Known about the structure:
- This protein is an alpha+beta fold.
- It has 12 helices and 23 strands.
- The chain has helices spanning 51-57, 75-89, 160-168, 175-178, 187-195, 224-232, 278-285, 300-310, 379-393, 409-413, 420-441, 454-461; strands spanning 16-21, 26-29, 34-39, 42-48, 64-65, 93-98, 107-111, 128-131, 136-140, 143-147, 153-157, 173-174, 199-202, 298-299, 315-320, 329-334, 346-352, 355-356, 361-366, 371-375, 401-408, 445-449, 468-477.
- Flavin mononucleotide binds at residues 287-288, 290, 392-393, 432, 447-451.
Amino acid sequence: MRAPGKKRGRRIAPPTISARLSGHITLDAQADGSIAAWFDGHSVGLGKFSAGAVNSAQDLRTGLPLSSFASDSRALDKEIDLLVRRLARRGLLEYRLGHLRDDKDQVVVEPQLPDYWPQTPKLGDADVIVLSRFAYLRRRGNEMVLESPRAGALFKICDPKIATAIAMLSTPQKISRFRRQHGFPGVELLALLVDCQILFKIDAASGDGLRATEGDDNLVLWDFHDLLFHTHSTEGRQANPLGGLYPYAGVIPPPPAVRPRWPGKKIELAAPSQTISPIAKLLRERHSTRDFDDQQPITLAELSRFLDSTARIHSKWKSRVDLGGGSPAVTYAARPYPSGGSAYELELYLAVANCEGLARGFYHYDADLHALVPIGVRTHELQALWTAAEFAMDAPAAPQILITIAARFGRVSWKYSSIAYSLILKDVGGLMQTLYLMVTEMGLGGCAIGTTNIDLFAKMTGIEFHVEGPVGQFAIGRGRKPEASD
Ligand SMILES: Cc1cc2nc3c(=O)[nH]c(=O)nc-3n(C[C@H](O)[C@H](O)[C@H](O)COP(=O)(O)O)c2cc1C
């Protein structure tokens, strides 16, 4: 008689990653096989598909496992893959992690970048993983979300046990040991989080020593709140709508233009004298111009004078900082506008659409040499930059020159803790006023622009978004003269 074998516990199938339509999206298929996605009364055409693909597309409401069409050996799989990727690129999909037979989601992955696609890099039992110092869990409505300014997606955590397991990852965990923990969330989720840089692998031998770098030396220079502020106050790395959306209209009355007076006795100030100084005149004349005269564009000579007066380096020096242990030498390069700590971290990039004597294209202004250096970029990226500026200004056409003000973040955060990003934005304000005053003085037109796309700039320049990136924009050109009224 055989001895009874050891009773094995039932293996629980790993959760599956499925693609599904975001809540507000519906798919509409026509008799000829064309499929369109509908949201908020708008439709987006996705192309023509076979009857089989149209049928399978219906499963995108509840979720189509990515593995079910990943092989792309069958024609139908290829079609579904194409449809799903088209939906993904337009930001119309989310991804569900859960068991196929269970309609309860464990985690829902919401893409924040247009080219996000769930990836599950291989994780072995010997790997040691830990949470990024940029990752955070927060309440959103009645939900718990896990986010990071570095991540291409956010993770809605639907099961509190998973939130507990994630909290344990604040200290490094070896996968083999972590597996045995109650509430282990499964290696699939961990791999998705590693791909999004919410978790990262550390070299077990080096321990915690290098955690500030997270595999990238440029991250050492960022405080958590600064990187979060940068990615959430700009376009490109987050999916939330932003800008003049009046989110509180109907909730709170609009705050008044002028502050309610303080009570008490007022000290009347004398009226200014009749003769107005040139700078006061310039300040009064300064205004925003959004409509440019493309028949008489700004000239290269004017652009050269404008950059020389506003942004050119006029002196350089070196100074040592005495930090007790060492005295690193810091170089300085002063320019016409003020800059916190004399950091002068701002760089000007010019998207030239219409300038007499200068070819269309993208240029960096070398403030030291007073020269323009062309940067090769794709036409559609340049066009996207102009289109966004046109939209932001509600202008009839693209500006003749669109200046992107980019910051070399590390130049400020190397010295300043906690206030680095806010100093950079204040520097942008100082520079913007300088640009406004100079276009006024030269009889040109200009307009500050409050939105920038940090992902687009990263794609155009090949520089990572946290190394050097846009913090402001300014449009210049020759303003169109208002038509004389009869
Ligand atoms: C930080 C900042 C951001 C701005 N963003 C925009 C913008 O995105 N679009 C726009 O048309 N004007 C923008 N402006 C221009 C303001 O709308 C303008 O300065 C304001 O209406 C006052 O008008 P004025 O400049 O003609 O005196 C911005 C100005 C500043 C200072």
